[in-house]
Design brief:
alpha/beta; Cytosolic phospholipase A2 catalytic domain; 8-stranded mixed beta sheet
């Protein structure tokens, strides 16, 4: 078990026994991609990878977290077209069909149906045998360790990285219970550099300014206005009740109580965004692609066509800057 734990790697430590790196594709310059977490917004990674490939920019290193590990792992195995076809075929009904709900487990969803889909296309692959260097980030339950999955089953590495706490079952690997890497490193720039990347391009799925929280320096606590009654008295009674509200309350929408699932996912998204900002400040990427994904809900997996297009659009917009930075690094090499 000690050997297996060592092979997983850990933040800030050298990675032992890694397979030899594939030759760099751009004159000695190794390009790394750090693909961030973001649930359904992760389909944007497909558009990003497609736009880069069409521009002749292919990574030598991919570090993925959560859905970034899913798309990045498929790309590393040469299966990007399969994950794209799967994503585009999703509907609300098909998504429900993939969710094997359970009671009494460590997660609301067992995840066996999702695992079977991954096994179908990726079951024969090991992380260390891929044609380019790939690794996924996971979090160990209880200790909070950041675990770098650099060897072993590709499917298990992906599953561990996307195991959303309380929603999906964690993965037991070598005595470690592993769950979503977004809890510790939502955009794994550090991992991409440790894997040998000379230049790192990251994809931030939560970088849309419309979704980023700020500081409200002065707010006085006050009882929220009550929503107008919805009794049988009808629209006239509701209108009169609204007119009776104070002017400031009348000018803004009345808050409605959110569902527990919505609160849970929003809280996770807020924490993920703050962790990502902190990690990126400590180890900034050379370039960052931030698709405008504010309108895509975290669990709207059925909107793959829109999300892929947004990822492609953001990448194409940044291509001149990417080429300029690559040219500078190549001139230095």
């Amino acid at each position: 078990m000690d050997d297996e734990r060592q092979s997983m790697g850990a933040a800030g430590l050298a990675l032992p026994d890694l397979p030899p790196a594939a030759p760099a594709r751009r004159g000695g310059l190794r390009i790394g991609l750090a693909l961030g977490s973001g649930a359904a917004r992760g389909w944007a990674h497909i558009g990003v990878l497609q736009a880069l490939a069409e521009a002749g920019i292919e990574p030598d290193v991919i570090a993925g977290c959560s859905v970034g590990a899913v798309v990045g792992g498929c790309y590393a195995a040469g299966k990007l077209d399969r994950i794209e076809a799967f994503a585009r075929a999703l509907t609300r009904r098909r998504i429900l069909g993939l969710l094997d709900f359970q009671l009494g487990g460590a997660g609301l969803i067992g995840g066996e149906r999702l695992r079977a889909l991954l096994d179908r296309d990726l079951g024969a692959y090991a992380v260390g045998d891929l044609p380019l260097r790939f690794a996924a980030v996971a979090t160990e339950i209880a200790t909070g360790h950041e675990v770098w999955l650099t060897q072993g089953s590709l499917v298990d590495a992906i599953r561990a990285s996307y195991a959303l706490p309380g929603i999906l079952e964690p993965l037991n690997s070598g005595g470690r219970l592993l769950m979503d890497g977004a809890l510790v490193n939502p955009i794994p720039v550090t991992l991409a550099r440790a894997l040998g990347a000379d230049i790192v391009i990251c994809v931030n799925l939560n970088g849309d300014p419309r979704t980023r929280g700020t500081v409200i320096p002065a707010h006085g606590c006050a009882r929220a206005p009550q929503a107008p009654a919805t009794s049988a008295a009808g629209w006239w009674a509701r209108l009169q009740a609204r007119r009776a509200l104070p002017e400031p309350a009348r000018a803004r929408p009345v808050m409605r109580v959110a569902r527990p699932a919505t609160i849970l996912t929003d809280a996770f998204n807020i924490a993920q965004d703050r962790i990502a900002r902190s990690r990126l400040a400590g180890d900034p990427p050379d370039l960052m692609i931030s698709p405008r994904l504010a309108e895509i809900g975290l669990f709207e997996f059925h909107r793959a066509a829109e999300t892929i297009a947004l990822g492609r659009r953001a990448t194409e917009k940044l291509l001149p800057e990417i080429r300029e930075v690559l040219a500078i690094y190549e001139a230095r090499a």
